[in-house]
Amino acid sequence: MRYVIIGASAAGINAAKTLRELDEMSEIVIISKDTDVYSRCMLHHVISGNRNLETIAFVDKEFFSKNNIKWIKGIEVTNINANEKQVILEDNKVEKYDKLLIATGASSFIPPVKNLREAKGVYSLRNYNDVLNIEEGIKKSERAVILGAGLVGIDAAVALMERGIKTSIVEMGDRILPLQLDKNAASRYQKLFRNKKVDIFTKLKLEEVVLKEDGSIDNVRLSDGIVIKCDMLIVAAGVRPNVSFIENGSIKVDKGIVVDKFCRTSAKDIYAAGDVTFTAPIWPIAVKQGIAAAYNMIGKEKAFEDTFALRNSMNFLGLETVSLGVVEAPDNSYEVDVIETEDIYKKIIHKDGILYGAILVGDISYCGVLHQLIKNKINISNINKSIFKIDYSDFFSIKEDGQYKYEVV
Ligand SMILES: Cc1cc2nc3c(=O)[nH]c(=O)nc-3n(C[C@H](O)[C@H](O)[C@H](O)COP(=O)(O)OP(=O)(O)OC[C@H]3O[C@@H](n4cnc5c(N)ncnc54)[C@H](O)[C@@H]3O)c2cc1C
């Protein structure tokens, strides 16, 4: 059996590791554009100077040799011939497979803004190469604009701030981290950023990048006419799955590659996992999907059912936060309980005894219990204590036959 995996990151590496654990003998080949294995979640620490390529590697150097995995690195897959079971590389070489896993992740989306694609000094933050390019940009820059205030944009803003670059953040939504935080929680971070002299522009779009004669950036113009002087721009406006090598509908693609709960695509013996499936563009989901895919490739059925992707933890500028599930009540039929002090903000959204979302800022000690309650939709109607004080012991009970049972996990 010859297993081929495209992609050497969260999904691909964990799939390969699992395949090897389950099957000592078969051939495993990983093909990747990346020449290194590293955590994308930590790229901003390389920009800020706190880590380097070695200290963001999530497997050791011997991973491939120890596991007898062939790694074809630094090369792009340009086509898949599903009928012939072949992967075609950019140098026209062909790799045959019996089972194929596509774990090609996603790329930064560059929105169609005037001069954004042409300007010199525009960067994205997805790959280690982006970090090297940003590093070159920093050498020539005093002022930067970050487009997009999601997790990647805020990571970038913190890194540039730490490098002494005057940074401004532009966000279309009414607050930073709009998918992770409500207004109250976001405003606490916005205050911290403004204290550090980072400017934040919300409810505004980037309208145009104004260029100098040599094509470098002079300034950016926002939708209300505000002009921000800057030398570099980091675009953090979302991602799109890497599927350009899939031709003529040979594999079904919607927002990402369409997979069933066994990570099978529409093509025989081809599986997909991670950001390329657009299930949820976060690391833990890519890992779990990669592992599930490996089991199924080997013929041991394993469903991937952890689609609870709405969970985030952050610690920007020393303020810890966890957000789980929805961050705003969907309508008035939901109840919202809040505890608020100057340093702490806790909010739980619930309805008919079921918790749908929570935000914990400044004190995240309760997040483990809340995660389980929200993810598993545990009914808390019968528990007569404050919703902020429920703990695991409230879910022990005794079955009729005298055995203990535990209802949270
Ligand atoms: C700056 C940043 C911060 C992040 N922070 C967090 C965080 O705090 N928490 C969190 O959960 N997630 C975070 N993420 C998201 C997380 O990194 C992704 O969800 C995760 O990397 C997805 O893993 P993946 O294996 O699906 O794909 P990727 O990590 O995108 O890897 C794709 C692999 O496929 C290869 N590849 C792509 N196309 C081809 C091709 N045509 N031919 C050959 N090889 C190809 C690439 O070289 C790479 O090896 C962050 C991402 C970024 C960029």
Automatic annotation (TrEMBL):
GO terms for molecular function: oxidoreductase activity. InterPro entries: FAD-bd_OxRdtase, FAD/NAD-binding_dom, Rubredoxin_C. The keyword Acyltransferase does not apply. Residues 312-378 form the NADH-rubredoxin oxidoreductase C-terminal domain. Pfam families: Pyr_redox_2 (PF07992), Rubredoxin_C (PF18267). Keywords: FAD, Flavoprotein. Its cofactor is FAD. Residues 2-290 form the FAD/NAD(P)-binding domain. It comes from the Bacteria. This is NAD(P)/FAD-dependent oxidoreductase.
